[in-house]
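FIELD: query
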Amino acid sequence: MPDLSSALHLAASEVTLAVGALVLLMVGAFIGDKSARLVSILSVLLLIAASVIAIVGPWGVAFNGAYVADPLAIYAKSLIYLSAAVAVVLGDGWMKRTRIAKFEYPVLIVLASVGMGMMASSGDLISMYVGIELHSLALYVLAAFHRNDVKASEAGLKYFVLGALSSGLLLYGSSLIYGFAGSMRFEDIAAFAADNPGPGLVFGLVFLICGLAFKVSAAPFHMWTPDVYEGAPTPVVALFATAPKVAAMVLIARALEHGFGDAHAQWSQVLIAISLISFVVGAFGGLAQKDIQRLLAYSSIANIGYALLGIAAGTAEGLQAMLMFMTLYVIDQLGFFAILLSLSKSGRPIRRIADLAGLKKDRPLTAVALTILSLSVLGMPPFSGFWGKYYVFGAAADAGLWPVAAAGLVASVVAAFYYLRILKLMWFDAPVDDIATDAAPVEAKWIGWACAAFAFPLVIVGLTWLEPLTKVASAGFGNG
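FIELD: result
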């Protein structure tokens, strides 16, 4: 019989978040919406505590192989939980300013973090699906959190309907895999696939990849992303762009390399095709956008294509490159959205790209920070985004995928246009009106500046500790 106490000890971070979320829910229910600030503060502390617990906790396998605590999961969880904590901080101030502050917002993020932690530690198809659905259900509600906003309601509905479709693909693929392999555990599936490769298992694998690709908004499964990014509240989009993508990318790596390592030749072709389509959709789709958040949606599609190249390489270096890329990408995205949350005119958030015209005159420091973050996301050396692409393109080229890496470089050049357009508007164009921007919220302003400072110049120092950490995480993959 499995030892339940040791299993719960291994899953202490998720248990802490789950129990803490229930306690915070009771606090909010008894005190009401006046507790929104208190619940937000406690949620941030809870997420930080869960991150520490995950880092100092033991390694191992629990629940009959359904849960894996290895260096990869620990690294991913620390990044996920800290990203979620920043999203809570950004959302708390924004919700208060827009007068829709409710205690449910941080509680939903904590519950979503439980699911994302499970995704990072999934050892079989059941825990994978439970983690995905647990975090997805919370995100559906968060997308429509601004109930009086028609676009937010539309975003939540589209996300829910298309999410149900992706769940169907995921379940169908999982059922095929279970039917042929006779087991839910990734280790058993890998052993069966090594001795009995066949079209049935490959079909199941393709459906599984399609369902997971939806979660990272990789093309051609990206149809929900632009509308949800445009309609959902900005701090919620900041969450969508960071923590869930890290969880889903680690899950893809775990499911494919742990469960189908010997079938790399088959699934790498699917990932390469998805990456190439994501390059095209992300780079060219962003050229016609006028809304900043829709622009960031297409940017995320292209960037996920870059990250998938690391997994497609099928090597420890490729896995490390993916972790490096996602870490630097998360910091850039949090900074970008923090800057957006700090910009408004007469109480109206700045959402159109044209509204950034002349920002250097009104908010010079913010313009500098946004310039650094824009150059970083487009991959300009020596900013942090350049190093992320350097690692994934290098890992892909070393694995013989240099034509795909070259296509990624071309897509980066195309995508550079819409970031350079932002720089032109801020520094060279006249303001569209004479209305000055409002005073920036303290939390959004400082988070944005801190992320910009990391993007350059602190990234030069940050790489010296980030590279060894990601190397340990990738080398320890599966050593739970």
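FIELD: remark
The CA atoms of residues 305 and 457 lie 26 Å apart.
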